[in-house]
């Protein structure tokens, strides 16, 4: 339940920021000139902070999208100046309307290959190449491509309600569909942030007449990318990548929040090292995922963590040993009854449509765990003491023959 709430929160946060940006924009007509100057400057400050954070956390996708946003905002502001003709301004606007969705789609698909690397240099080259190509289109006098960008390819006239060229609107929609499809398939907060940025910038380009609106929504787009970097970095720091359970670092923090009465259980997969040696580490990882998926749903108000290796920890705030013991027994039994199928060497990765007699039957094994539990008392006053006591109880469970719970 808690994981689902976090998932919903991470999905709606970027769109909440867009709503906040709109409310802020509606208040700008009452602001002083000094406040408006701060708003005009804010996108560049946010972009700079975001670029530094993306570089430090090696998030190349956000890094390059932030560079694109910086360039696009600078060009949009340049088109509002008196030093450029109306024709050149219209051409730059049309190119930006097309380049923004293309680049968001492009960099959302590119894998993380680093920033200070050959792949990073290639991506910088892509951005520079686009910039040079745009300048050539505007100042070369060759109008064919620009006319094609601005051409109405649909019989529907949407100019009255939308100022973005039809081709760019279509590219925006295609990019949106791609990002939504990816998000549904992979459930990535990064894709959610790109969707929010795409919608925010579409709104900006569709209302291109207001510089303050442009500043507000470009700033919030940069802020959305910063937030997703922080969210994902927090998840990586406090969650175990393999099992999806909170990590040992999260355990240490939550142990400091425990109250006067609590119990702690330590759980270890029996004979896991022999299992790894026999079937390989890839199969061992699948076993860890299976056990973690069961531990995650422990009853009795417990919260599960991956302690390290094949060991897991469960915190029971406000519970005594007598209260949590039945829940640990139930957990142990669930794990022992859950069969794990060893994939045969000649078994295909994907399930075949028809069964064949040539395939060897898969082997099913059963995993067991040993559990030790301790609670806070006069002898064990701190969470660390209780944890060590639970670890000793775990070894007593192993000496008893494993597949049992020991106090």
In a nutshell, what does this entry contain?
With 407 residues, the chain is of the alpha+beta class. The protein has helices at 2-26, 33-56, 60-79, 86-109, 118-139, 144-149, 166-186, 189-206, 211-238, 248-255, 272-279, 281-295, 321-337, 383-399, and strands at 262-269, 303-308, 311-317, 339-342, 363-366, 369-375, 405-406.
The main sheet orders its strands as: 2-3-1-6-7
Low-confidence regions: none
Estimated structural class: alpha+beta
For the termini, the CA-CA separation is 29 Å
The 3D shape can be described as elongated
Helix run count: 14
What do the pLDDT scores average to? 90
Helix content: 55-70%
Largest sheet: 5 strands, mixed
Strand tally, please?
7
Q: What are the salient characteristics of this protein?
A:
407 residues; five-stranded mixed β-sheet; two-stranded antiparallel sheet; 7 strands; elongated
Descriptive notes:
The chain is of the alpha+beta class. Helices cover 62% and strands 9% of the residues. It has 14 helices and seven strands. The protein has helices spanning 2-26, 33-56, 60-79, 86-109, 118-139, 144-149, 166-186, 189-206, 211-238, 248-255, 272-279, 281-295, 321-337, 383-399, and strands at 262-269, 303-308, 311-317, 339-342, 363-366, 369-375, 405-406. The strands form two sheets. It has a five-stranded mixed sheet, sandwiched between helices. It is elongated. 31% of the residues are buried.
Give the topology, please.
Elements: H1 2-26, H2 33-56, H3 60-79, H4 86-109, H5 118-139, H6 144-149, H7 166-186, H8 189-206, H9 211-238, H10 248-255, E1 262-269, H11 272-279, H12 281-295, E2 303-308, E3 311-317, H13 321-337, E4 339-342, E5 363-366, E6 369-375, H14 383-399, E7 405-406
Parallel strand pairs: 6-7
Antiparallel strand pairs: 1-3, 1-6, 2-3, 4-5
């Amino acid at each position: 339940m808690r994981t689902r709430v976090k998932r919903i929160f991470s999905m709606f946060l970027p769109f909440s920021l867009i709503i906040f940006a709109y409310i802020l924009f509606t208040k700008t007509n009452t602001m002083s000139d000094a406040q408006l100057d701060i708003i005009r400057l804010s996108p560049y400050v946010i972009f700079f902070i975001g670029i530094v954070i993306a570089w430090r956390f090696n998030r190349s996708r956000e890094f390059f999208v932030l560079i694109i946003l910086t360039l696009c905002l600078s060009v949009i502001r340049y088109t509002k100046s008196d030093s450029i003709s109306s024709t050149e301004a219209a051409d730059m606007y049309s190119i930006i309307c097309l380049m923004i969705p293309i680049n968001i789609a492009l960099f959302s698909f590119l894998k993380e290959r680093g920033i200070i690397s050959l792949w990073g240099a290639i991506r910088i080259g892509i951005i520079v190449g686009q910039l040079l190509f745009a300048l050539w289109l505007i100042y070369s006098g060759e109008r064919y491509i620009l006319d094609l960008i601005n051409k109405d390819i649909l019989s529907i006239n949407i100019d009255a309600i939308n100022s973005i060229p039809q081709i760019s609107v279509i590219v925006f929609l295609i990019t949106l569909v791609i990002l939504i499809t990816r998000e549904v398939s992979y459930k990535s907060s990064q894709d959610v942030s790109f969707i929010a940025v795409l919608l925010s910038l579409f709104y900006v380009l569709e209302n291109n007449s207001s510089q303050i609106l442009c500043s507000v929504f470009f700033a919030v787009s940069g802020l959305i990318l910063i937030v997703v970097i922080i969210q994902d970095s927090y998840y990586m720091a406090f969650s175990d990548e393999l099992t999806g359970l909170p990590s040992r670092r999260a355990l240490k923090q939550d142990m400091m929040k425990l109250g006067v009465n609590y119990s702690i259980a330590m759980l270890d997969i029996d004979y896991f090292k022999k299992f790894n040696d026999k079937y390989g580490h890839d199969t061992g990882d699948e076993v860890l995922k299976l056990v973690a998926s069961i531990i995650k749903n422990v009853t009795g108000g417990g919260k599960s963590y991956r302690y390290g290796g094949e060991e897991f920890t469960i915190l029971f705030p406000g519970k005594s040993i007598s209260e949590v013991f039945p829940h640990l027994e139930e957990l142990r039994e669930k794990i022992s009854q859950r069969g794990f199928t060893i994939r045969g060497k000649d078994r295909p990765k994907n399930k075949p449509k028809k069964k064949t007699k040539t395939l060897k039957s898969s082997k099913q094994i059963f995993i067991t765990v040993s559990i030790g539990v301790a609670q806070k008392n006069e002898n064990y006053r701190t969470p660390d003491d209780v944890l060590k006591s639970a670890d000793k109880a775990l070894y007593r469970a192993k000496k008893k023959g494993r597949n049992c719970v020991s106090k």
